[in-house]
Amino acid sequence: MSVFETLRGFFTNDMGIDLGTANTLVYLRGRGIVLSEPSVVAIRKGTNKVMQVGSEAKRMLGRTPGSIVAVRPMQDGVIADFETTEIMLRHFISKVNNRANVARPHVVISVPSGITQVEKRAVKDSAKKAGAARVFLIEEPMAAAIGVGLPITDPGGNMVVDIGGGTTEVAVISLAGIVYCRSCRVAGNEMDQSVMQYLKRTYNLMVGERTAEEIKIGIGSAYPMKEEKTIEVRGRDLVSGLPKTLTISSEEIREALSEPVSAILDAVKITLERTPPELAADLVDRGIVLAGGGSLLRGIDKLISIETGLPVIVADDPLTAVVVGTGKALEEKKMLEEISLNDQAGD
């Protein structure tokens, strides 16, 4: 490391950001993960005045009066609302960049592998307007593979499945490059929607996003459990319009989740079918690594293993795999230059 880089490390808070549909995590050089908050912004209608960002804003989802709206500026892993994303990024960057720095930070941001040139530019512009000096983009599956410690620079095949909030990224990586990748816009949020639709269709019960997510986390599964569970669900009866409480079983929620789980499984199978045979042979021993919050769904590792015949391992901390990968890339300049999308996206 040059003297300039050493001095720069002292005077700046260079950071890696996992800019997710559901949550945004920030990794600060030399300090590790310093922030993990929902990607939600609460805005006052008409004035566009920001009321809350992150955790406080998420508490408002489904509970706001008519004058306030809580929005997710990221949809399916990409920017849906440019201005709100910039506000959110500025808030998170300033929250962790709390010392009087001489230079603005360099920022590494993970993006879905299927992102377009326009979407890349939107992410970079938002980060620069939020205070970044230079922005590097790396693909989410690559960041996840680095974060979980896969030997990405080896000539052998490594397969990672990153099930996030808005997208599922399935990739085979070798020699620090993605050999084949499939991006599927079905992930944790789609699972929540499936739970909401199931309760509406089966019981005429309307529940919000937060309740659906709590049900998924509480009793959701992709494969039959040894001990099936039940949960009490409160919502609004669509027939009477009155509050209603029901007891729902884990078997029912597994049925509700079957469609998004099948879409993720199909993405894994298609990726395996299109993987070169030499690399596919490596996966028999190395297996598949699952990352992202969606990999915490009970039994999804077992289901994928049974359907593919390959060993499947869930990362030790799947929720932080991507942001840890951006942080490791930030600290290894040579690797960052090799794997970043900056050549294609412009700097």
CATH class of the largest domain: Alpha Beta
How many separate helices? 13
The Rg value, from CA coordinates, equals: 21 Å
Q: How much helical structure, as a percent, in the residues?
A: 40-55%
CATH superfamily of the largest domain: ATPase, nucleotide binding domain
The overall pLDDT, averaged over residues, is 88
Task: Find the structural class using helix and strand composition.
Answer: alpha+beta
Distance between the termini: 22 Å
How many DSSP-defined strands? Answer: 18
Q: Main beta sheet: strand number and arrangement?
A: 5 strands, mixed
Q: Give me the CATH architecture of the largest domain, please.
A: 2-Layer Sandwich
Shape: flat
Strand proportion, as a percent range, falls in 25-35%
CATH topology value of the largest domain:
Nucleotidyltransferase, domain 5
> What are the segments in which pLDDT stays under 50 over at least 5 consecutive residues?
1-11
Q: How many structural domains in the coordinates? A: 3
Looking across the biggest beta sheet, what order are the strands in? 3-2-1-9-10
Quick description:
With about 350 residues, the protein is of the alpha+beta class.
List keywords for this structure.
347 residues; alpha+beta; Nucleotidyltransferase, domain 5; five-stranded mixed sheet; 18 strands; flat
Description of the molecule:
With 347 residues, the protein is of the alpha+beta class. The protein folds into 3 domains: 3-143 and 321-345, Nucleotidyltransferase, domain 5, CATH 3.30.420; 155-186 and 258-319, 2-Layer Sandwich (Nucleotidyltransferase, domain 5); 188-256, ATPase, substrate binding domain, subdomain 4 (Actin, Chain A, domain 4, Alpha-Beta Complex), CATH 3.90.640. 41% of the residues lie in helices and 27% in strands. The strands form 5 sheets. The chain has a 5-stranded mixed beta sheet with strand order 3-2-1-9-10, with helices on both faces. Helix 5 crosses helix 11 (321-331) and helix 6 (188-203) crosses helix 7. The longest helix is centred in the C-terminal third of the chain and has 24 residues, at 250-273. The two termini are 22 Å apart.
